[in-house]
Amino acid sequence: MSVELYVVQFLTGLANAASLFLVACGLSLIFGVTRIVNFAHGAFYMLGAYLAYSLTIRWQTPVGFWLALLVAAAIVAVLGAVIEILLLRRLYRAPELLQLLATFGLTLMAEDAVRLIWGPEDLVGPRAAGLSGAMTVLGRPMPVYDFVLILLGPAVLGLLWLLLHRSRWGLLIRAATEDRDMVGALGVNQTWLFTGVFALGVFLAAFGGGLQIPRDAVSHVMDLSIITEVFVVVVIGGLGSLTGAFLAAIIVAELNAFGILILPGISLVLTFLIMALVLVLRPFGLLGKPLAQSRTLSHRIHGAWQPLGGVGRSAALAILICAALLPLVLGEYGLGVASEVLIAVIFAASLQFLMSVAGLDSFGHAAGLGLGAYGAALSVQHFGLSMEAALLIGPLASALFAAIAGWFCVRLSSIYFAMLTLAFAQIVWSIAFQWVEVTGGDNGIVGVWPSAWASGATAYYWLTLGCTTAVVLLTRHLTFSPFGYALRALRDSPLRAAAIGISRQPVQHAAFVISAFLAGLAGVLFAFLKGSVFPDTLGIGTSVDGLIMVLLGGFGTVSGSVAGAIVYKMASIWLISNTDFPRLILGGLIVLLVLVFPLGIVGTLQQALAGRLLAGNASVRGRT
Amino acid sequence: MKPILQAEGLRKSYQGVKAVADVSLTVSAGELVALIGPNGAGKSTCFNMLSGQIRPDGGRILIAGTETTGLQPSDIFRLGVGRTFQVAQTCLSMTVRENVQLALQSRHGGLRGVRTLLSRFDRRFAAEADALLDLIGLAPQANRPCHELPYGDIKRLELAIALAGAPRLLLMDEPAAGMGSEERAGLMRLTAAIARERQLAVLFTEHDMDIVFSHADRIIVLSRGTIIAQGSPSDVRAHPGVQAVYLGTGIFAIGDP
């Protein structure tokens, strides 16, 4: 390869960085002030692109093009402000997990809304009028538009710097980023400051979306692809730092540009590896600072945890017996659905153990499930092993990966932990997606069938039921073992745990590995149930499914996930087969759930029961 | 007598600002030593270096003859150090008894290895935990969820947790902060009695000078990161440098002859 090619590739990378920077600095601004990690930022980017598409095809003049981008971004910003006022304002004091889920719900809704309005096909927008030509760099052509983008990034950074450092509003934003409680205590009206910052952040994202029109097709999957990249950018740059976002956007864009040239097979992995490396060396990103501890209280404490009493155990046994008798009533299809629900229970129980007991909110639990599934599929297809062997190899593959990834992850906490787990899951996803020779890429691995004795629907259902029962009993046992108490001590009070001799990293690492092992078992059962494995099992969607099931059950409870998984899985299977726009409904339900039942099914029941028992007592504890 | 805690030449700066400069101190078995000083004198920094939360820039710390400089708090626990915090730190999702049981199991090695996964938590060291709760007067509350306790009881629970580690040294950061005056005196009397009986070395910080002068055997006064005086309560009270540091706060009028 020649030097010229490298130069051109470098310039293309810089041009790619522009959009990435705009979206990332919007996310970073919003996070800095409101402490919300806005998952919906990718959706706003996508909406900006779609609206800009509709406007630019009407206004095909040099002024019209830029006007279209600005108008589109402004419309999306207004939409963002409305969402902030209606939804996010109620969530600023809520746990991070609820905020992430609510904004993920918005993302799901946006995806279907876009399909509803613009149709399912990819749309190719017009070129930028007046900038559609090419310039020659070292004998190679480069689009003029790319040069505009290269200049635009620093220009936006400069404008934002002026806004933040030369205006009163900017001063308030910087002050709120340092310490929002103090800004509130000083009498600044935070409500509109937050709305304004949110709208500005959304404007930047939507404008970034519009900028991509002349370069890329507009599609309804662009939200998730940009949001992962942007998470990587803000984590590398440091949450809350604009200059950090700028630097990191260039690093990530260049890694992508050169990764394709140098390491075509694993270009996606490269970015996530760099992110993992940065987080380990500088846990708060290149230019980020440690997050100020928010002064809000934890929501998770509702009383001392206890194992189920006699009544609870009898009820659980009764449910188990009913479940075992299901094959008497259900046909083959029904049992397939029931098995899928049970697998979801295993997956959710493994995540609940990690989140409720260990207090580790993983956003990459799909890696556990997916590696189990791929581990099983590969051992059957490539090594000709039996299902029985695969049932062990799959979970072990997950556990092995968790042992490696977990070593990095448990060095971080809260939101950075969540993002690093997401990054590791994306690494695995990109390997499954890109390493076509082994994983089949997008086509997956098919023909993964169970052993003869378990191939009937009833037998397989009973196998799954057996595994599910074992997993639920095991997580309950672990919760009330000394190990579970040590984990809970680390979650309740890291200072106290250290002072009584519990060292955080080894204990949390062990929990991470155990949880992945159990998720891996769910993956194996899933692979044999479906007879195939696709990269989807490793995707963000799978991780979020897990989070929703735990949330639905109640993430402050010991085993609400069982109820959450059953309700959620049945609802989503029903929605997918009975409606055209399942994401719109599902997303709406998630948002509603976060707003109305933040304690989940079991949590709400527990509170209702506690309320009845304490009726008349003035000190009934409400949700703080 | 050989000191339990021995610190030599401790130093710590934050971005060029010296929080603690050259502090040396010792605490012996059965002795209650108070570390006092105005806000910003370096008490908390000193304390956090001794308990392993902050790594000193220079100097060394010996606990019962073992060098602990740079060790993690969880390692320092194993050398026999119990700790209470300015803002009480307990596990709010557990009962009162479970809080103490956890510390007992940790001391007996019950939180390491595969055994932690296989055994049941509630069956181990329950009786020992109840004995400690009895000692500090919390036995009737043993089964209550920790988060329901009044703050004064949580502070006492912290003492029980610290004692569960069978410490030779107790580090107590403002043990009486946030308590009513009756409760404060009670807690300090209890601490002093236990310390004498079990021959514990106790180092504590406190803002309440009544508590300090009526319970400490020895007082160390910090100002701007260095020790300006130490000795018996009457020596310290008479020290001109201490009076200068505290001048105008009026605390030395209390109980002065």
UniProtKB/TrEMBL annotation, chain B:
Example GO BP: L-alanine transport
The keyword Nucleus appears for this protein: no
An example Gene Ontology molecular-function term: ATP binding
GO cellular component: plasma membrane
Record key words, sorted: ATP-binding, Nucleotide-binding, Transport
Pfam family, one: BCA_ABC_TP_C
InterPro entries associated with the record: AAA+_ATPase, ABC_AA/LPS_Transport, ABC_transporter-like_ATP-bd, BCA_ABC_TP_C, P-loop_NTPase
Keyword Transport (UniProt): yes
Boundaries of every ABC transporter domain copy: 5-249
PANTHER family, per database record: AMINO ACID ABC TRANSPORTER ATP-BINDING PROTEIN, CONSERVED COMPONENT OF ABC TRANSPORTER FOR NATURAL AMINO ACIDS-RELATED
Stated name of the protein: ABC transporter ATP-binding protein
Organism of provenance: Rhizobium straminoryzae
